[in-house]
Amino acid sequence: MEEYEELYRDQVSIINIPVDVPVRDLEAVLNKQLSGILYEDNNLRDGDKMMVRAVKQDDILLGLDSQAITYRIPLDLWIKYDLGISTVEANGQISLDFKTGFGVNTDWSIFTTTTLEGHQWQQKPRVKMGFVDLPVGFIADIVLRNSTRQISKAIDDLVREQFDLRKTVEEAWREMFQPALVSEEYNTWLTVNPQYIGMSPVSTERGRIATTIYVEGKPSVKIGERPDPKYIQPLPPLRISPVEAEDFTLHINAEISYDEAERLAKTQLVGETFSYGRRSVTIQDLEFFGKGSNIVVNTTLSGTYNGSIYLVGRPVFNPKKNTIDIEDLEYTLDTKNYLFRSAGWLMKSTIKNKIAENLNFLLDYNMKDMQAQFQEQLQDYELATGVVLNGNLEALDLRNAYLTVDGMVVDLALTGNVNVRVKGLNK
User: Which Pfam family, an example, fits this chain (predicted)?
Assistant: First the structure.
């Protein structure tokens, strides 16, 4: 009879994912996007008596200042000024100093505020016609008032466009609910099952904008058919809190379904013939199920004996080998009593030992290969466009084993570290 004990429980795991954005990458994008004419006024009759064209003169250089990005934008100016009786043209050079403060809203969207911190003339525009000087102060006010508003908006729009944090996080959040095939050989599927996601305060140091995203989840691994994705919960509001460490320990419930166990065992055992004297039997089929904390193997035989025999054993964790062993695999009492009366010779054959060997092989799946598969998944894994995850898996250990209605659940513990780099930014 099948029966199961609810002995295992999910454990919440926390994955810490450091994220950094090199300022030089942001600088390259800013220079690419902000090029050529940054401000232009072609109307001589709009009240200021001037036409102005401001062209970026050289590369923008970025710096970091607390929770802000600082930069200087050098501009070449062309000016046409209406003197009343005639117009004059002049050229000049000015550098504008900006600061962009930034933060993250509770809906994971980035907000920025760009302000003009100051300006410096490299070459003042000056034209003399008799005793008339070009009014440099007036020109500076017009250029600053108009170009600053236009350039600041362009910078804020650019940062929000390049750093669509909500889109990136939401894409990664939804992906964590989808089973990912991490081992074709063992037909192994990993689902992170996130429960919450947050981040640490943003820091700006050593030429990088850095934070750590942390995910609280209940990861699971299933060996067998691809599991159905769980209900995708909406992206939770942002919670900002400090992160103490950058490594992780994942507690994963790895499920080996009875169907998969049977499939693998059958490839080794079905068709095997066992002889004792002139008597012999051939294994025709295998079925696994649980009884309390034990696993039952229903073996269908044909030959001198036609029918089923039942063996029962206890799955235990072997810390020395990092494996699951089936201890004390024996015929059930009913099977033993029946064979004593009608087929005692079968108990003297090697069939029980052969089944035990293959059950150990089945449950002792190659941990080194599985660790290599996980490690491969942690190399240059693109979470979203331009957002790449890399990591190192230091250990993968078995902690315990339980039986459920669907199969055997193994408590796996993975330790290691990961980091995310935003490279190339959005195109």
Answer: DUF4403
